[in-house]
Amino acid sequence: MFYKIKTITESAIRQQDLLLNEPIDLSRGEDSPLYGVDGTIDSLTLVSIIVDIEEKIRSQFGVEVHLADTTGLPQSAMPFSTLGTISAHVMSRLSRALDVAGAVPLEIALQAQAI
Prior knowledge:
Elements: H1 2-17, H2 43-61, H3 83-101, H4 106-114
């Protein structure tokens, strides 16, 4: 399940490489810094990545997620700081959106897509 979300997230990040002088470095895997103190992207690039992920989620799962809305997260939360934190944030928002929509649980939906 996390692998599918991470793939969607990485794809959105890689699409930004076409617009940047240097590609975003994801060599540290889930610990790769993206946004914030140690991050390598600016706020405009982050917004583009968020919009792309939201569109991919809508297309693949048929639900709306709002990743920029950090309501309910602790003030110290940094959901966009690394590849791992943004993937976890996406998975959390997707799970919540599927629950609200009364959709099939995320794990079952992902298993069905793999068949």
